[in-house]
Amino acid sequence: MRLQRLFSGMLVFGVLLPVSAIALPHSIPVMKDHTALSVFSRKKTIRLSFRNVSAAALELRAGEKLLTLEPGKTETFVLPLGVQVCLNKATSNGKAGDLVLTAAGYLDRTTVSVH
After folding, report:
1. What whole-number distance in Å separates Cα of residue 10 and Cα of residue 34?
2. Within 13 A of 99's CA, how many CA atoms are on the CB side?
3. 85, 100 in Cβ contact below 8 A?
């Protein structure tokens, strides 16, 4: 009888333990500078590098912000999620207003080559 109670108690404990482990991250306060908790925080900006591989200077528009890229140079910018990066001036490969990319979380810390 004791063995049966012990087994049933362990079974109930085993069922309740994973539920509390899943609910735990939602109860932890999010701190921006703490690396262990960065998994649970959502980034609202990304760091994106643009490399100009063409022979002429490029002007890109990210929302209301103008980004100028000199030929052969790489520039890093911090952009909010969801902003669209478009060509501001026409080039040999595209016209003004053409969409280059839309900032998304999976693009964080990547380099985009623009022709």
Report:
1. 35
2. 6
3. yes
Q: Could you tell me which of 41, 30, 44 has the C-alpha nearest to residue 78? A: 44
Q: Which two tokens stand for residue 35?
A: 């690396």
Beta strands across the sheet bearing 58-62: 65-69, 58-62, 84-87, 99-102
44-77 pLDDT per residue, tens: 899 999 999 988 899 999 988 898 999 999 999 9
Residue keyed to tokens 């003004």:
96
Locus of tokens 């108690």: 9
Checking DSSP bridges between strand 110-114 and strand 45-52, what pairing results, if any?
parallel
pLDDT digits (tens, 9 = 90+) for 6-24: 777 776 666 666 555 555 4
Q: What is the residue type of 110?
A: T
* Contact call for residues 79 and 110 (beta carbons, < 8 A): no
**Closest alpha carbon to 112 in 56, 74, 72:** 74
